[in-house]
Amino acid sequence: MTRIAAYIPNLMDRSRFGDGVEIVNKLEELKSVEADLVLVDLSRSKVLEYLPSGPRVIGFAPHVAEEILDAAKKAGCAEALPRSVFFRRLPTLLGVLDD
Questions:
Q1: pTM value?
Q2: DSSP letter string, the chain
């Protein structure tokens, strides 16, 4: 089974994730999270400094935050998506939990 963790501080956004997703509450915990897939709100301050290096990381930020999206790719995100695209794809991303 695929292990998914998420650093999503916004409670409204977090409500879209199911019970099978481990929520990372502190930024400092993100770097050492043990998961196969990590989902990250890239618009949070200093989040790029804490991206884990092992698992696949997919992040999101507002579509107008092109600098953040570009920096996230350079920092190791497999995908850095505009917020609307990320949440449209979220059911598919979370579908890997059914493995």
A1: 0.91
A2: ---EEEE---HHHHTTS-TTEEEP-SHHHHTT---SEEEEETTSTTGGGG--SSSEEEEEE-TT-HHHHHHHHHHT-SEEEEHHHHHHHHHHHHGGGG-
